[in-house]
Write a structure and sequence with these properties.
The protein has 448 residues and is an alpha/beta fold. It contains 17 helices and 14 strands. The strands form 3 sheets. The protein has a 7-stranded mixed β-sheet with strand order 11-8-7-6-12-13-14, with helices on both faces. The radius of gyration is 22 Å and the shape is globular.
């Protein structure tokens, strides 16, 4: 995992350096974009199984030119300083791409949370919140959930933060002040100041971006299927109905992408989890597949179409086989580097939507881009989550509470605007979307 973190950091810094060179930026500006402002590395003690255990924690604050540092907290045994720094760097870019007034940060604890009881997990979460309390705040640094953390954990952390900042909840002067303090963490339970629409936000944002992109491209030319799209001026919905999607990863992001894409008229034909994958040529039901997965522990064997699961509908395949399916759109939503030098030649999709962080290696990205595959980069594709985190923070700071419909409308507007800006630069300079996204982000940061 240490080598993986180093490679991730080198890759993130490499593309920033390359972009900065294309923009003719000075060495001082490049250093400002590369180096984090602060690296907080610390140890803290939590009682587990009746004895004190020392844990290693990180909070890296990369850049706050555009606003408070923003980024998740992950609990994982493979967390490293290099990985956290890479993710903090990419959060700076992602927030700038999305056009929201946040910078980039990230946090993590070296721990396997699956080995902890719920009470031990709570003690750990609260201890970590106490450790970072001196250098976070609604106008300073705004953490959120990430790998193995969730709204419940954010609820514990925000409670602990408020307790430490104000000593006692009773010392908070008024409701407005309490809501502002709650804005220090996003991804919270709704009853603790969280927002409606946050759970689905990353997946929903990815579908909004895909639809916005399809309005821009010549679908018939990209997929070389004139019989499917004889009239390029036909309504978008007609184009969508002919497109097939495979989603690797069926966690929160992958599931909601598949569910919302299916509701929008796309044909989702394959999904997978860590245990295996299922292919249903006629199009599967994401909701019924999730229900089947909960009952069986895996999507493998869940050949679900409509409201029925039946062996006749599909077949079991591997995760690797899913990546090579003859689909129009491939959506890697699980881990980094899943598309690499070993399997990149098997990819048949014409559009790849990077819903995971860094699912393509640099080698695979270069190879597929040269083949004409459109890669929607992670800093754009999965920015729906941080965008709704911003909307949650905004509601806290303004002491407002929005309907889910209003949140989704704001998300749609912001995602479509991000696509418009990046597509315009991509077309004007004849560069891939990834390069255009990084150029847009870096220009926004250096012009501030």
């Amino acid at each position: 995992m240490e080598n993986s973190g180093k490679k991730m950091l080198e890759s993130a810094q490499g593309i920033i350096k390359k972009t900065a060179k294309n923009l003719h930026l000075t060495k001082d500006i490049v250093n400002r974009l590369i180096k984090p402002n602060y690296i907080h590395e610390f140890e803290f003690t939590v009682k587990a199984k009746g004895r004190p255990v020392i844990y290693k924690g990180f909070r890296i604050q990369h850049n706050n030119t555009l606003g408070p540092y923003k980024g998740g907290i992950r609990f994982h045994p493979g967390v490293t300083k290099e990985e956290v720094q890479a993710l903090a760097t990419l959060m700076t870019i992602k927030c700038a791409v999305a056009g929201i007034p946040f910078g980039g940060g990230k946090g993590g604890v070296v721990v396997d949370p699956k080995k902890l009881t719920e009470s031990e997990l709570e003690f750990l979460s609260r201890a970590y919140a106490r450790s970072i309390a001196p250098f976070i705040g609604p106008n300073v640094d705004v953490p959120a959930p990430d790998v193995n953390t969730n709204p419940k954990i954010m609820g514990w952390m925000v409670d602990e933060y408020i307790k430490n900042v104000k000593c006692q909840m009773s010392n908070v002067k008024n409701k407005n002040e309490l809501n502002e303090l709650r804005g220090t963490f996003t991804g919270k339970p709704v009853e603790k100041g969280g927002t409606l629409g946050r759970t689905e936000a990353t997946g929903r944002g990815g579908v909004i971006i895909l639809k916005a992109l399809l309005k821009k491209i010549n679908v018939g030319a990209i997929f070389k299927s004139p019989e499917k799209w004889a009239n390029q001026d036909s309504p978008l919905q007609k184009k969508i109905g002919g497109l097939t999607i495979a989603v690797q990863g069926f966690g929160n992001v992958g599931y909601y992408f598949a569910k919302i894409a299916s509701e929008e008229g796309f044909k989702v034909v394959a999904v997978s989890d860590s245990h295996g994958a299922v292919y249903v040529k006629g199009g599967l039901s994401p909701e019924k597949t999730l229900q089947c997965k909960k009952e069986n522990g895996t999507v493998a064997g869940c050949y679900c179409k409509g409201s029925v699961c039946d062996l006749r509908y599909g077949k079991e395949i591997t995760n690797e086989e899913l990546l090579g399916l003859p689909v129009d759109v491939l959506v890697p939503s699980a881990f980094e580097n899943v598309i690499n030098g070993e399997n990149m030649r098997k990819i048949k999709a014409k559009i790849i939507v990077e819903m995971a962080n860094g699912p393509l290696t640099d080698e695979a990205y270069e190879f597929l881009s040269k083949k004409g595959v459109i890669v929607v980069p992670d800093v754009l594709a999965n920015s729906g989550g941080v965008t709704v985190s911003y909307l949650e923070w905004f509601q806290n700071m303004k002491n407002e509470k929005w309907s889910e419909e209003k949140v989704n409308q704001r998300l749609k507007k912001m995602m479509e605007k991000a696509v418009e800006v990046i597509w315009t630069k991509s077309e004007a300079k004849r560069i891939p979307l990834k390069q255009a996204a990084f150029e847009v982000a870096i220009e926004r940061i250096v012009k501030k």
